[in-house]
Structure to design on (801 residues):
């Protein structure tokens, strides 16, 4: 991509300077991103071969982690859906410049509420119970979004810290309730209603993976419409740009902040329901497994655009699954797969720099297009 | 003698199961009642371990073995499983391609997925090492009847009666007891040397969680020490995690600051041993030797050697014979072992005393949970209902005091001793 092979006579002059790009063509920005991924893959291949592994079989194994069998493809899509769901849930808040770092906790508390209904509301017809499961999870997530929003709207509290701390409250609450519900003394609920399957989300057409995928795709389309075509979406974007402007044009800023965060939290709660009631059928402190934090990255990488998020979420899951496949098949320590993911993500995030800035080489030096 | 005890226990389990099937609806849904006798016959203890038999030449060539681990080699617990499998593979003549190990598999549906991955990879038998994996492994077992699933530390196999789902554990409390003897001798040495008075013989124990597996472990350790050093007392600090190096180190330091002169642990990182080495406090380790990191303070370590179980189960698959629903490894199967004693830290004569007590455990003259050796709230324990058969309410169901001792790991493989005995003080609890 770059060509720096020019002689350097005047030592006192800097080699290049940076210029902010006014705009960049769509295809150019994607060329840079793809270039970054390719560069990262080459670096990883070099590291892998230094460690004595054939880079080609390394990547083949990586590929097979997600696409090695029909079931793996389904699992890949399902895991991608969970991550995408959380990232999409963050999009309205992020577009409002409300830095919701609490997706993990909002989803977990939603899952906890769902687990509670699965466990205890067993006297009602199963369809009703499932509605309660979903309702409880969405409501709990909404409350977890509502609390920091109210404090931000009324007293200007720092939402990043507030939502972050709410994660730990959710985790501790989950530990506490697991302990009080669990009678085995092992701090482990096991699969809830394993024999009766009460309160489990249905598996569509006998496929246990597809439900989460469909729900999240619908949510993604819905949020795209909400953000781009509805008045709410416009209002929250204005609030994000400038609260004063929003006030000037008559937008009720407090209302928009609270409303948007309720939506964001509720969607996270819904993802929690999908995980607990649809996939795991149990809850642990680690049910969301850090995906709530990864979703922040996905949301950012996709510039808060729900459709780009599909690509980003699947890429992250591909790296995760590929990495774990590599560590299993090639007998590498798991840490290595995390290094691989880290390198690739670092390159992708780094490439944003070249999308925002262009490098101008000084004087006789050639200008480099990204 | 041991075999007779085992046979007797098997017979008791037949009765236990029959009684259970009458009252527990959940237990009978998976098995028709006429299967109960067959199932009960399959629930055997050590006696079966030696009868897995030999295999024909080349029969091992096609078998593929999978192992699912909660953490990776950095955890002494998982490392012990991985090393056990490697040892078994060498003994059975398996090549590297025939062994697949999945590490860092959490106790969520990821475990189920990992099991299915291993099935897809062609594994004939799949092991899982963490308690919380059990129900996910059970789910995978129900859906893949042609593959055998063996879950260590679990409790459900003997009541679920899913034909290809099995539990296993070892009578590690015997190993802990022997390690406790080594600790007691070290305390005696300190008392004799005038470093501490007899009343200051206080041990510290870093535990992961306050449940049976850990309680059984530290109590047997304490009783081992008490058998040679009658004045010993112990404080236990729990970390709430199986693997948290910082918390384990901190817990060990807390105990050392509280006056503990010897530390042992039941958690899987190097936290406690390292803290001991830094503070110069003797340490009785677990899961394997930590002598290389702690040359001055490591005394001895007990561990479960999983290789005999792997060999038994894999051989059973190859020979197409049934694997016991519930398998207990013992000292005599080679499943409960002690590492070499580090003579630099241990008291003189430790190895000889360990050998003597070990012989007593083998011939039955020494019982770890002998009710004459401990009290509960100042009184001897004469009766105790343990929760052996897991049901939804976790009701205690089985009288565990047999012939003047608590019969641990006999009604099922996983530990169920969860009594707080006098002399041990819990500084906190963690579930």
């Amino acid at each position: 991509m770059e060509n720096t092979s020019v002689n350097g006579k005047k030592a006192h002059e800097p080699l290049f300077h940076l210029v902010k790009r006014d705009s960049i063509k769509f295809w150019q920005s994607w060329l840079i991103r793809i270039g970054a991924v390719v560069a990262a893959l080459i670096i990883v291949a070099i590291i892998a071969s230094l460690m004595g592994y054939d880079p080609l079989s390394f990547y083949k194994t990586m590929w097979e982690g997600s696409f090695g069998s029909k079931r793996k493809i389904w699992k890949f899509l399902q895991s991608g859906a969970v991550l995408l769901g959380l990232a999409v849930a963050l999009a309205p808040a992020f577009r409002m410049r409300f830095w919701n770092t609490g997706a993990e906790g909002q989803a977990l508390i939603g899952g906890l509420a769902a687990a509670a209904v699965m466990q205890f509301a067993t006297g009602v017809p199963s369809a009703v119970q499932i509605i309660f499961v979903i309702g409880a999870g969405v409501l709990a997530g909404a409350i977890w979004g509502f609390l920091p929003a109210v404090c931000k709207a009324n007293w200007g509290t720092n939402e990043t810290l507030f939502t972050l701390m709410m994660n730990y409250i959710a985790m501790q609450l989950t530990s506490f309730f697991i302990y009080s519900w669990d009678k085995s003394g092992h701090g482990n609920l096991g699969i809830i209603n394993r024999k009766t399957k009460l309160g489990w989300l249905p598996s569509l057409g006998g496929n246990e993976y597809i439900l989460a995928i469909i729900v999240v795709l619908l949510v993604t389309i819905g949020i795209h419409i909400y953000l781009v075509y509805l008045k709410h979406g416009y209002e929250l974007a204005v609030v994000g740009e400038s609260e004063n402007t929003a006030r000037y044009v008559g937008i009720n800023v407090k209302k928009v902040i609270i409303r948007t965060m309720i939506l964001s939290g509720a969607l996270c709660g819904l993802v929690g329901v999908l995980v607990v009631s649809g996939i795991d059928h149990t809850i642990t402190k680690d049910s969301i497994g850090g995906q709530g934090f990864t979703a922040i990255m996905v949301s950012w990488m996709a510039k808060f655009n729900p459709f780009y998020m599909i690509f980003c979420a699947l890429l992250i899951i591909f790296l995760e699954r590929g990495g774990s496949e590599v560590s299993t098949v090639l007998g590498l320590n798991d840490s290595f797969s995390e290094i691989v993911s880290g390198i690739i993500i670092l390159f992708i995030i780094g490439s944003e720099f070249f999308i925002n800035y262009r490098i101008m080489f000084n004087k006789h030096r050639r200008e480099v297009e990204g | 003698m041991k075999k007779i005890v085992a046979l007797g226990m098997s017979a008791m389990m037949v009765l236990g199961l029959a009684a259970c099937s009458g009252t527990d609806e959940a237990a009978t849904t998976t098995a028709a009642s006429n299967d109960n006798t067959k199932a009960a016959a399959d629930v055997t203890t050590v006696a079966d371990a030696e009868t897995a038999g030999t295999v024909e030449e080349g029969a091992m060539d096609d078998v593929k073995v999978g192992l699912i681990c909660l953490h990776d080699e950095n955890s002494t617990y998982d490392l012990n499983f991985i090393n056990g499998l490697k040892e078994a593979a060498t003994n059975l003549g398996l090549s590297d391609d025939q062994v697949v190990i999945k590490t860092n598999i959490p106790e969520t549906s990821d475990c189920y997925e990992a099991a299915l991955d291993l099935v897809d990879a062609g594994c004939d038998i799949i092991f899982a090492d963490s308690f919380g994996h059990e129900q996910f492994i059970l789910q995978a077992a129900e859906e893949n009847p042609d593959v055998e699933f063996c879950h260590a530390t679990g409790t459900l196999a003997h009541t679920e009666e899913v034909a290809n789902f099995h539990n296993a554990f070892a009578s590690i409390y015997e190993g802990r007891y022997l390690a406790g003897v080594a600790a007691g001798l070290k305390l005696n040495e300190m008392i004799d040397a005038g470093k501490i008075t007899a009343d200051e013989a206080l041990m510290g124990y870093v535990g992961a969680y306050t449940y049976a597996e850990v309680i059984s472990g530290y109590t047997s350790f304490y009783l081992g020490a008490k058998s040679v050093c009658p004045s010993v007392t112990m404080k236990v600090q729990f970390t709430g995690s199986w693997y948290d190096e910082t918390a384990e180190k901190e817990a060990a330091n807390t105990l050392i600051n509280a006056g503990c002169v010897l530390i042992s642990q039941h958690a899987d990182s190097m936290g406690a041993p390292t803290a001991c080495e830094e503070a110069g406090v003797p340490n009785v380790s677990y899961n394997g030797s930590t002598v290389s990191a702690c040359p001055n303070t490591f005394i001895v370590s007990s561990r479960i050697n999983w290789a005999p179980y792997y060999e038994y189960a894999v051989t059973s698959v190859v020979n197409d014979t049934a694997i016991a629903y519930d398998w207990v490894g013992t000292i005599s199967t080679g499943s409960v072992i002690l590492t070499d004693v580090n003579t630099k830290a241990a008291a003189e004569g430790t190895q000889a005393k360990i050998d003597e007590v070990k012989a007593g455990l083998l011939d039955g003259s020494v019982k770890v949970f002998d009710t004459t050796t401990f009290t509960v709230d100042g009184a001897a324990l004469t009766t105790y209902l343990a929760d052996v058969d897991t049901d939804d309410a976790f009701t205690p169901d089985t009288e565990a005091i047999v012939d003047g001792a608590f019969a641990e790991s006999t009604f099922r493989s996983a530990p169920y001793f969860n009594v707080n005995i006098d002399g041990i003080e819990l500084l906190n609890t963690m579930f």
User: Anything to note?
Assistant: Residues 73 and 351 of chain B are 29 Å apart (CA to CA). The longest strand of chain B covers residues 298-304. The mean pLDDT of chain B is 85.
